């Protein structure tokens, strides 16, 4: 591959981007792209993408795909994504539209390259569930060790890379919101190479995972809630794009929408949703976070009608709001809960919204009233309440200056001394509170103090910042016990938080992603639970056990997981993922980015049995900070000299770059060669203080060894010094 990965595209593509800004007509833009392709195609050496490893796991295909054999003659769009990422989900409609317009017969193939952020996302079965959940119908490869990510120097999710028919890199698009460019670049690339006879129309062996699975009453239920009487449940049957209202025994009372996605108001039989998540019920009115339609919907159970309460049906970028609901664009609402305004005369006159797409918490005024630190608002107004819109874990006394990271669950504790919203902030792996007196945003459990570190995840019971969660998606308040329950989704657990003591402990689940029912809480298991609720009297908890396609019922008095709720008289709509999870128990040493410098050290003369003390001194770029909760580490390798590594400590953590790291290494007493090369490598994650993007960088030091037979002294010290440069 030509050196530099995606950086090799930068000079030419930047010129193109500026030229496109000045172009007035579609024809001018097409001509500019065409001329750019002529220039790129005539390069002396292609910016080639390396072959995808033969040992990688593939989904939605008949078998592994070779980039340079099977996809030769195709224009390929590589989508580097991770399934937790809301920005990656926002890109999927663009990819769906692109593959609807161009098929493999036309010469286009999209390949999802899943490069995980969280450890849970590296597990193949969890990626299978995500592919089903988000209706991904193109091939996906599990790049669990981020091999291709490093090879191409990808730096953030999502990133699209467009390849020509020789596997030659042509364009990259970073982030969401590039639909016009994606279609422009792809269409002109297809035209350019068809004119040169380089596009092949052969089919690629697609085998959709969903086609081999049996029907199921529920498909990836995201959220569940219970009415005040405790007699009716409302279930967001997310994968079937519908809302179910059932009795507490599971008997269906109403089916609203489904089984296919759509965007229609009207009677229950004609209404349509698109991957609905959060729901809130009061009397006979239900509000729904219609996530992928970017809408808040209202269901009237008496009239059996669905209407739109907020949103315009396309993804909004407005971070402030203030328009009437049906005129206000919003972005990926994920949860909703009723609450009270400060000056309102009616109960439940506000609908609080976890707006995952803009990393904020919004309010929809169901009646006129006033919010904390706000002015009087008219009925129907929809606006931002808390969160700047920057993806951060930032707490602040002023709600608009606080920062969230994909808030996905919200619950209300209206009673004193709480009087707050609890927020499951999934990408920061925290639970936060928002005061309903003054709007102050505070930390409760999980994460860490650095607002830019979104990698402070884990599975640790403890108090406050010492507790660790992994991508929690749901919270619910237990009024009876004054406790908060958390769906710790990627740890496959339900946690309980005492907000007074800030103590967080495992309530149910072993941490294994599986489906054990009818046992004590400590023996029961879940698979990425996304939502939960507690009935008014505090006895039963209902959990949307998303990847098990069930609603589980937990008795909080007896601490028994009594059953999975039977869904009675459902239509069999679609297919679940019930394959057992194979836990990846193999621990790999990190792989450095391909751009990682290799520092050649002077040869060192040593003797068998002697100790070398490597002193690692690393410096980050100005205004950067180490992500201390990310897997920063050093490790030692010795290619072709594995005898050097016997009974050695080969890796360790780097906690603080302001201090030097001491790495001791003792040579074997019996050496098999008079010469050898030892490599000491380091892998760091750090953030720029002005950005929430996390960079991964590496450095390798090669230490040649001359092994003498005579004693060279007891200790040899070698300094390993490197300063990382600003990108």
How would you summarize the topology of this molecule?
Blueprint: H1 10-22, H2 26-41, E1 57-59, E2 75-81, H3 86-101, E3 108-114, H4 124-133, E4 140-142, H5 147-151, E5 159-163, E6 169-174, H6 179-195, E7 223-226, E8 232-237, E9 242-247, E10 252-257, E11 266-267, E12 279-282, E13 285-290, E14 295-300, E15 305-310, E16 321-324, E17 333-339, E18 350-355, E19 360-365, E20 369-370, E21 376-377, E22 381-386, E23 407-413, E24 420-425, E25 430-435, E26 441-446, E27 462-463, E28 474-478, E29 483-488, E30 493-498, E31 503-508, E32 519-520, E33 531-534, E34 540-545, E35 550-555, E36 560-564, E37 598-600, E38 604-606, E39 611-619, E40 624-626, E41 633-637, E42 651-653, E43 661-666, E44 675-688, E45 694-707, E46 715-723
Parallel strand pairs: 2-3, 3-4, 37-45, 38-45, 39-46
Antiparallel strand pairs: 1-4, 2-5, 5-6, 7-8, 8-9, 9-10, 11-15, 12-13, 13-14, 14-15, 16-22, 17-18, 18-19, 19-22, 20-21, 23-24, 24-25, 25-26, 27-31, 28-29, 29-30, 30-31, 32-36, 33-34, 34-35, 35-36, 39-43, 40-44, 41-42, 41-44, 44-45
Helix pairs in contact: 1-2, 2-6
What report would you give on this structure?
The protein is mainly β and about 725 residues long. The protein folds into three domains: about 5-210, Glutaredoxin (3-Layer(aba) Sandwich), CATH 3.40.30.10; about 215-570, Neuraminidase; about 595-725, no CATH class. Strands 37, 38, 40, 41, 42, 44 and 45 form a seven-stranded mixed sheet that branches. Strand 5 and strand 6 form a beta hairpin. The model is unreliable at about 570-585 (pLDDT under 50).
